[in-house]
Write a structure and sequence with these properties.
Rossmann fold; 10 strands; alpha/beta; about 240 residues; two-stranded antiparallel sheet; about 35% helix
Amino acid sequence: MPKICLAVRHVAFEDLGLLGPLVSARGYDIRYHDAGIDTFGAATLVAPDLVIVLGGPIGVYETDTYPFITDEIAAVAARLHANRPTLGICLGAQMMAAALGARVAPGPAKEIGWAPLTLSEAGHASVLAPLGTAPVLHWHGDNCELPAGCHGLASTAHCPVQAFARTPSQLALQFHLETEPARFEAWLVGHRVELGEAGLDPRDLRKQARSAGPALREIGRGVLASWLDSLPGAAA
């Protein structure tokens, strides 16, 4: 029987991206769970061998507007407390933080575009080490506190918790390593309203993608592959 990877998707264009082929090559059968359409039961996220919670343009605190968020956070919490391998990206990282009891709220500024991280001592000792000072793709306005019992791995000036790990197999990234540069135009279209509100020109981001995207693609693939290879039973 193949291993199952369940990817929680919030908007169609923020999918597994580069992660898709990496996950498939390691013997996982990929299935998508579309938040807001597919329901989150108590055990929805516990059974799969791997769960990846992807990004999206909503906040974990918008439960009145998007009621499914409450059930999603509860499902993520069940997954984490069962000590099952989990990767959260952007909104997914914030879901993990909220599931672990940490506060998530709008940050002092939106971070959209390519910029480097500052890795912590724990970050330099983690799978993120190859990132060094390479620019990564940021696309978020919310920040989270570091959940109790977790290790902070990276920061930026406006976001003290850019990455954290609860265990080596439970990793949260506020930034994007999975985005395929060749498909970045879909992000510029899908986030048109947000870019306009932030006063950002898609043409500038397109130039950044052409300049920084190819190098990040290779570094990001390596980081993500290393994390997948570190999971329990990875060689199975």
